[in-house]
Design a protein that fits this description.
Blueprint (H helix, E strand, L loop, with lengths): L4 H17 L4 H8 L6 H5 L5 H17 L15 H8 L8
Helix pairs in contact: 1-4
Length: about 100
């Protein structure tokens, strides 16, 4: 799954917007995802392994649903891209809350 620089930027903006909408600090999100302190940033900036970007997206979506926050439309990380991503990168687990 290759992305153009514009697609990478759009994906990063979408992830950051969702993260910013959540009423949580980064530390509990990083802990749930198994990231070192500060590790969330790489996934949000789309500079992490694609599986980690997807895991982060999915976990943020689950948190947003739990807090009644609207889920944004994702351009590249859309639900209809999931099966293709899993074929390319393999399956991933999303932590439960």
């Amino acid at each position: 799954m290759s992305r153009t620089p514009a697609e990478t930027e759009a994906t990063s903006q979408e992830l950051h917007a969702l993260r910013d909408a959540l009423p949580l600090a980064n530390a509990p999100i990083e802990s749930a995802l198994g990231y070192a302190p500060g590790g969330l940033q790489a996934a949000l900036d789309v500079h992490a392994n694609p599986i980690e970007v997807w895991r982060t997206r999915d976990y943020l979506v689950s948190l947003a649903r739990a807090h009644g926050i609207p889920i944004p439309r994702f351009s590249r990380l859309s639900d209809n891209m999931r099966s293709s991503a899993q074929r390319w990168f393999g399956p991933w687990d999303v932590p439960t809350m």
